[in-house]
Amino acid sequence: MAAERYDIIIVGGGTSGTFAAATAANEGLSVVILERKSREDGGMIACGDAIKGKSTFPDVIDREYLRAESFTNENILKARFENPLTESHLDIPFRAPGAVVDRKRYGEVLLEEAERAGAEIHYDTVVRDVIQNDSGRVTGVTTTRKGNVKNYEAEIVIDAAGSLSLLQDKVDFSNTTFDTKVSYSQFCSAYREVLITKEPVDYHDAIVFKPTEELGYLWYFPRSPTEINVGLGFQMNKPPMKLVEVLKNDIRSRPEFDGAKIKNKLGAALPTRRPYDSATANGYIAVGDAAGHVNPTTGGGIPGAAKAGHWAALEAIDAISEGDVTEANLWNYNQRVMQDFGKRFAAMDIYNIFGGAHDVNELVKVISALPGQQLLDTLGKEGTASMSFGLKVKTALKTIGHWNVLYELYKVQQKANELRSVYDEYPDDPSGFESWRESRDAVMDDVYRITGATPKY
After folding, report:
1. Mean pLDDT over residues 332-359, rounded?
2. Which secondary-structure segment (H or E) carries 201?
3. Which of 95, 109, 206, 382 is 20 to 30 A from 437, comparing alpha carbons?
4. Beta strands of 12-59 (E only): which ranges?
5. In degrees, to the nearest 5, what angle opens at C-alpha 80 toward C-alphas 75 and 82?
6. What are 236-283's pLDDT values in tens digits?
7. Who contacts 385 (Cβ-Cβ below 8 Å, separation ≥6)?
8. How much is the pTM?
9. How many distinct helices (H) and strands (E) make up the chain?
């Protein structure tokens, strides 16, 4: 069977895949995106639709066109945390406005931009297997399209196939550093609907979060004052929940959704774990959800995926031009990720571990007492935060009866700071990887000891 030959194969046409394709194609490389969806369904992904803004995207696509076509609400000024115990809420202002997009149109535009840059997109193409040579380098993939089998070959395969990527079940990662300590318990199951309301909602300038009985949350993100993305996610390490019913029950309790109509619905899985320790192998790079590039506390993954796809393509371009696509020559990709959003997401994952070891009602009481900006910095931006002495005293007074949990949270926060410092020392090449991982694991051992949680990895 004759194989189709490209410089780079990208499996998956989501955010990370399209940014990788646009980056490489703009530099004149031959690139193909293998997308299992049809052209009609291309761009449709289950997502909360909220992002920081177009400025977070690498400048390899027409960002103004993306904004004009898919940004439906650019006036997100705050996060609202609803307390399920008191039915009150806490509004936390953003330092800069965020946005909510029409995720389908957003995805379509990114695919258009990849094609405009010169990448090919082969729709209805399902990857079934990975091809490796005798030295273990990934050299291509085997696919089916409408019943026809076809092989693709390339210098580098970029895995943008999403959570629990099939490719990673097929690749032999022996003699590489690629992170294989991946399990379903490190992922979240999510479901979302887009509802059209009769009247504008009063939180049209906010993204709304509400904890659930298990470690997870409901969300209400306004694409417009009358078009709301509503959804629910929960950790897969918890007992199965009737996702749709949990969400429906909450929707029924909210008067703004009386008579609302469903525009569409979709489910997905996404990582709620730290980024992969290494997402490279010989001839192979994983990006976006396929490498755990998602904020593990909020599930937000669009900015990280865009950056990761761009960086992976840059490393691939250099490696191909040098005639050396070994893991060692792709390693700078790992370092870029870890010393950017990777260290923040790893720190945030500690709070998931802490949360999983406690009753949600107690957590809500403690978290409700935390100052808003500190809560936002911890869970959404940096993974760490600090409080003045006065704020600490006020918080202590509001959490009488829960000081043991608050003190544990304080110790966890110290470990999050320490972990960020470890990630700042991520090695320059694979030779220092095992030593670095031992240092990181020592911090995590302290986290498990402090929280009493079962080790996650």
Report:
1. 92
2. none
3. 382
4. 31-34, 50-51
5. 155
6. 655 555 667 888 999 999 999 999 999 999 888 889 899 999 999 999
7. 373, 374, 375, 377, 378, 413
8. 0.90
9. 14, 16
Nearest-angstrom CA–CA distance, 395 and 403: 10
Per-residue tokens: 257: 């959704």
What is the chain's Cα-based Rg?
22
Angle at 51 between CA 367 and CA 288, to 5 degrees: 95
The token pair at 28 is 């004149």
Q: In Å, what is the CA distance from 416 to each residue of 236, 271, 352, 364, 442?
A: 23, 19, 12, 20, 13
* Nearby residues of 257 by Cβ (< 8 Å), 6 or more positions away: 195, 197, 228, 230, 251
Structure-token pair, residue 33:
């995106």
CA 242 from centroid of its chain's CA atoms:
23
- Three-state DSSP state, 107: helix
pLDDT band at 190 (very low <50, low <70, confident <90, very high): confident
Per DSSP, the three-state class of 13 is coil
Phi-psi region of 283 (alpha: psi -120 to 50; beta: other; left: phi over 0): left
Q: Answer yes or no: are the C-beta atoms of 221 and 72 closer than 8 Å.
A: no
Only one residue has tokens 């755990």, namely 292
Within 13 Å, how many C-alpha atoms sit on residue 249's CB side? 9
Cβ burial of 115 (10 Å; 0-12, 13-18, 19+) is middle
- The edge-to-edge listing of strands for the beta sheet with 216-224 is 50-51, 89-101, 71-82, 206-211, 216-224, 227-235, 187-196, 261-271
Q: Are strands 89-101 and 71-82 parallel, antiparallel or unpaired?
A: antiparallel
pLDDT digits 0-9 by tens, 128-138: 999 999 999 99
Do 11 and 34 contact (CB within 8 A), yes or no?
Answer: yes
The Cα 384–Cα 340 span in angstroms is 15
Pairing state between β 187-196 and 50-51: unpaired
Contact assessment for residue 53 and residue 98, using Cβ atoms and an 8 Å cutoff: yes
Q: Which residues contact 229 (CB under 8 A, 6 or more apart)?
A: 47, 48, 49, 50, 100, 192, 193, 194, 219, 220, 221, 222, 223
Largest CA distance in the chain: 72
